[in-house]
Structure formats: structure tokens, C-alpha cells
Amino acid sequence: xxxxxxxxxxxxxxxxxxxxxxxxxxxxxxxxxxxxxxxxxxxxxxxxxxxxxxxxxxxxxxxxxxxxxxxxxxxxxxxxxxxxxxxxxxxxxxxxxxxxxxxxxxxxxxxxxxxxxxxxxxxxxxxxxxxxxxxxxxxxxxxxxxxxxxxxxxxxxxxx
Length: 160
What we know:
The chain is mainly α. The chain has four helices and four strands. The protein has helices at 27-41, 57-66, 126-132, 141-159, and strands at 5-7, 17-19, 90-92, 109-111. It has a two-stranded antiparallel sheet with strand order 1-2.
């Protein structure tokens, strides 16, 4: 087992540095030596930066908003007024992952109410309920319209 010691670094020629590896490199030179080897081999050497890939949903949402009538906007399910429409209010009727061909179809997107903070009953709005709750818990006239639309879109998806 190698025991670090103070001595002469082979790479940077500095004396009285802590030599941390058998090859005789100091800590800084050892790191640079490893990075140079990785670059030579074509490996990733730096911190990973996530690059977001555009899915096209933003342009679909924008076109939906531009084509909406000038009347007040209401939730498709509970008919509550939605004052400011954000991407959080745009809900996909059919899930994006399972039905990828319908992801950018404007017929698959409805405006649902969405609350950032839950109320006393734990309700975060219709969008949260549609995405997270089982369909058996979603009852009422608005939810029946949503389920009917879901059924119709599934039939259309079968023909694609």
C-alpha cells in the first residue's frame, strides 16, 4: 500500500509537495495527468451539463392560445375560471409517453385548472388529479366528458 509523502514531483518539478501516488505526481499534477488520459481516450472529463431537447410542445401550446376565442378561459372539467394560462394548465388527455404520436396533437391537449399549493383538502386542481389519481376516483359530469374524450382519442390512435 502506498503511503503519501512530501517530496519532489516528477511533473511540475516542485520540491516539498505532497506526493499522493506511486508514479511520483503531486495531487494537482495527478489530476491533470488523469484528465489528459481521458481526453486522449475520448471520455467525458468535465461536469455533465444537461442539454434540454426541444419537444415542440411550446409551439403547440402557443398555437392553441393564439386560436382561442377572446372569452374568459375555463377549466375543461370543473369549469372554474383560469386567469393566467401557463404550461401547467395544458394537460394531455392521453399520456405523452405511452401515446407518443398524440403528444403534439392539439386535440389531445385541454386546459385544466392547476394549483401550485394544495388547498386544505389536498386538492391541487384538475390537472394534478387527471395525471395522478386513478380513473375510478374521478367522478362527475366534467370527468365523464374527459373520459369520453380519452376513449375517442384512443380509437383515433389505433388508426394512426
